[in-house]
Design a protein that fits this description.
This protein is of the alpha/beta class and about 260 residues long. It is about 50% helix and about 10% strand. The protein contains ten helices and seven strands. Helix 6 links the parallel strand 5 and strand 6. It is globular, with a radius of gyration of 17 Å. It binds ligand PTJ. Ligand PTJ binds next to helix 2 and helix 4.
Length: about 260
């Protein structure tokens, strides 16, 4: 939280007014998440393309039972361990992540010491500013913006512009809801990439170092909980084991099996 910031002035959650009208609906959670995305588009945080990306994610979430599965829990433990053990960790935020999980992303940043950096596929300065203000509303500080001073040369999209103090020099990057090209480009520069993606078959899921196949809303909340438990005990053998024993291929296989068989 910013020095001098008044916690009382921060919203209790990312919830919008529209969410309160869905209290008795059987698919309440899923509809509430949708509402946040729609509100994100209205307020200039999320791109219209983000709604389509979310629809795809929803279909996968339905198939995995809209709950955090064991393969995701394992990946979450490895992800948190990797962030806590990193020297220069960064959390990359796009329009969907900001609309759905700003509060928990800010908390994760505080607990792990990873700075927040905004990086957009459909870039505009207005949207970067809207996301920055949204993160600040939840207590985010020292938020990094994309800059033309540092470029991932193998990328052709606007995602190539990164911050020289952030993604450019990071050893570990948490990039929820990523597009495949950037994940591969970041890995090619030797960085560890942690992602959240409900589709275990996507290029991002395959190319990342650690993939959490879960809804970002549930996953980041659990990451905060785990990181809070482990903060300050970075050499805890359990934490080190979580990272060392993580088997990326095995986790993706388990997630794919869950999708195909419901098991
Ligand atoms: O804000 P911008 O301009 O940076 O754009 C962000 C999006 C997400 C629109 C952009 O990165 C994009 O087009 O992403 P893709 O290539 O559609 O990939 C998004 C992936 O996230 C897909 O594999 C979806 O299944 C997955 N996904 C969507 N919603 C969720 C999700 N995974 C976890 N939680 C979700 N809520």
């Amino acid at each position: 939280m910013a020095e001098g910031a008044n916690p009382a002035s921060q919203p209790e959650s990312d919830q919008t007014d529209a969410e309160t009208t869905l209290d008795s609906h059987p698919r309440r959670e899923s509809l509430l998440i949708r509402e946040r995305l729609v509100e994100g588009v209205r307020s200039g945080i999320t791109s219209e393309h983000g709604l389509i990306a979310h629809g795809r994610g929803e279909a996968f979430d339905y198939l995995i039972g809209e709950r955090t599965r064991e393969f995701a829990e394992t990946a979450i433990r490895a992800a948190v361990g990797t962030l806590l053990l990193a020297e220069r960790p960064i959390i990359s935020v796009n329009g969907n992540a900001a609309a759905l999980a700003s509060r928990d992303l800010v908390r994760l940043s505080e607990v792990t010491g990873a700075r927040l950096e905004i990086n957009l596929f459909h870039h505009s300065e207005e949207r970067v500013s809207a996301i920055e203000q949204h993160l600040v509303k939840f207590g985010g500080t020292n938020i990094l913006r994309p800059s033309k001073d540092a470029v991932i040369s193998t990328l052709s999209t606007d995602r190539r512009y990164v911050n020289p103090e952030g993604i450019a020099i990071a050893d570990v990057i948490f990039v929820p809801l990523e597009d495949g090209d950037r994940c591969a480009a970041l890995r090619a520069t030797g960085k560890s990439v942690i992602t959240v993606d409900l589709n275990p078959l996507s290029r991002t899921s395959r190319d990342a170092s650690i993939t959490i196949v879960d809804n970002i809303v549930r996953a980041v909340r659990r990451m905060v909980k785990r990181a809070t438990e482990l903060r300050g005990v970075e050499n805890d053998p359990l934490l080190v084991a979580d990272v060392k024993q993580y088997d990326h291929a095995e986790i993706l296989q388990a997630a794919e099996k869950a999708l195909r068989t419901g098991l």
